[in-house]
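Posting for a labmate who doesn't have an account.
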Amino acid sequence: MSREYAEKRILEALTMSKGNSTKARQQVIAWCSQDHKLLQALAQPHLTGIVAHAISRVVYKQETVENEDDIPETPQSLDMAPDTFGKEILKALSSDNAVLFGRDTGAAPVRRKQASQSHIDALRQMASKSKSTHKDNGEDG
């Protein structure tokens, strides 16, 4: 019954807004503040997810407050001179062994191996066949 009631009210809002779904949505939201039966009919299928989300937020908030106690009040100082700090960052970024975003390890990226001679020969053979096919069709290659 509640699903039919919600659909009836939505159709009513669409009629009032002459098919404009944005205005109909605003109307249904306005009705929900006064019509708790409509609000319940709309929210019922999603209630488990809504409650799970609310609980997760409270648990996360509690964990964050507990972890804030472990954070020192004053920032820790760097173990290097301030003028060398920027140089260290630039050196790390320009390094060939720099960690790439999305890689789990800091290992150097695997370099491509040189193509084998048989691979090079196969590519040349395919290219030459392609050129001869274009010439046979009257195309310039």
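Reply:
Got it, the structure tokens are right above this. The chain has six helices and no strands.
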